[in-house]
Amino acid sequence: MANTINGSIYTYEVSPCYTLMENSLFEHMRKILGWEAVDGTMTPGGSFANFMAIHLARHRIHPDFTKKGIYGCKPMKIITSEVSHYSMKKGANLCGIGTDNIIYVKVDENRRMIPSELEKVIEEQKYQGNDILLVNSTVGTTVEGSIDPVK
After folding, report:
1. How far, rounded to the nearest angstrom, does the alpha carbon of residue 106 sit from its chain's CA centroid?
2. From edge to edge, which strands make up the β-sheet containing 102-105?
3. DSSP 111
4. What's the gap between Cα 124 and its chain centre?
5. Greatest Cα-to-Cα distance within the chain, rounded to the nearest angstrom
6. Structural domains of the chain sorted by starting position, each given as residue range(s) with its CATH number in brackets
7. Is the pLDDT higher at 55 or at 3?
8. According to the model, what pLDDT value does residue 10 have?
9. Which helix (H) or strand (E) segment is 94 a member of?
């Protein structure tokens, strides 16, 4: 009974139905986006998706981080809106970035990130020599529901 309620979905052999559904959804999204290929993973929610994004961004900028840790790394900054999901703080903490390295961008009256303010923050961080780990934009979170107008 427990396996039915809380099934593992990590490989085709363990869970062919979930794997086929996941692949079908990715294929559907690939067609919508017009991409030639797509790959991905399903997450149990937005918090885990944000954590994963921070972790992957950190690995892309500092591939040796898993061996060497923070030693030798320039400060890594996460840029997000001032009304972004609270999970950004949790992710920054869990990934060793630190919540003090999150930079919040001002939002407009509709709670959307102001693109000109985002540009200012990016230029400031580049000037200071910091690594911009990622820019997190909001697309309809449970907290705000707003969609940031950034490309």
Report:
1. 19
2. 102-105, 76-81, 131-136
3. S
4. 22
5. 57
6. 2-33 (no CATH), 46-136 (3.40.640.10)
7. 55
8. 64
9. helix 87-94
